[in-house]
Amino acid sequence: MTLKSLNNEAIFEKKKRFRERVKDFFSVTSTYIFSSFTLIALIAIIVFIFSRGYSTLSWDFITGDYNPTTYVIRTDTESDADRLDNTFDYTPREGEYFSSLWGIGFMDEENNVGEKIVIISYVDPNANINNIVDADNNPFTIEAGTTVNSALLYNDEGRVSIRIDKGAQEVAKRFDECPYILQMSLTTGGDGIRGSFISTLYMIGITMVIALPLGISAAIYLGVYAKENKITKMLRNMIDMISGIPSIIFGLVGGIIFLPIVGGNGNLISGSLTMAFMILPLIIKTTQESIKTIPKSLSDASLALGASQTQTTFKVILPNSLPGILTSALLGISRVIGESAALIYTSGVAILDTVSPTQGSATLAVHIWSLMSGETQNYEASCAISIIILIIILVLSIIIKLISFITERKKRRRG
Description:
By secondary structure, this protein is of the alpha+beta class. It folds into two domains: about 70-190, Roll (Pdz3 Domain), CATH 2.30.42; about 195-415, Orthogonal Bundle (MetI-like fold). The chain is built from 14 helices and eight strands. β2 (about 95-100) and β3 (about 105-110) form a beta hairpin. The longest helix has about 50 residues, at about 5-55.
């Protein structure tokens, strides 16, 4: 080979290596760029959710009823007439307005729906307002934090209707002008998500009880027993196709099929049946992929020692597939928690405080849909519920990782 040929070959190899380095550079760079976009989008979503929902998130919000308790009350006017000359001393806090005639303080607040309300922030122990009675003429004690819906007062000039929308300052002023309360409407509680949270737990439990055994059984059949033929290939293609069906169609079909079975009305059972069939392809594919990763030598060794295929499946394959099965369960639970479209048709949109599997009740995702579907969207409460959903998924992920870690460590010790 001539010197010129050797030089040409060296130049060619150098150019080839240069092109490969350039190609690798652009491949790595593009991967980092697109990954950065995904990371930025994820961080932006989390920051938005926490910034808008953190102030609303509280223990009362999680454990409270959605529907408030309303009280209609009045006063004992004779006692009020005897005590009209009494006044009460109190130094209001910032943003608080005090009625010295009634010994009661008011403040402007926002409820969990983001609406402006007036609450009772302070009641003097000896105040006239303590003579109040409810609609059945039973004594009623007003506590701080109670919301004022409306009030009809009375003075020498006649009746005075309180405009709550004017704010706490106007309410306190009107109370100082009127010695009698003809009627007053108060509410306590409300706008909590306890019922929706319990509905979500019911939905997860019933769905996974149905979907996990069916999904794992199908994965075992396709991954262990089924032979490679046209029927098996068709089954796998159908599972892939079902995975791409929009959830709204599942809801429509679930409503047609399952609602007549459970009595014609949407409830948590019909919603769970629909969700079980929605997540079946996910569980089957994830579990089947986990079975494929098990070395064939383990199964062959078990069979060689005289174990049957069934014994090998339950003693060797399934225990080694546990991390994949747990992952499929986590993905299924995440899908159940985040689903709303299918459940609108099958489990209903009613937000209830007393929940039963045989009743229609909104889950957390449907609760978010309800808060955002009206004319006034409630971003704060919706973001607070989103934080709870993210925390649930995070906790489940940590638990599954711990179980997988413990299982792997036990296997290494036995090995």
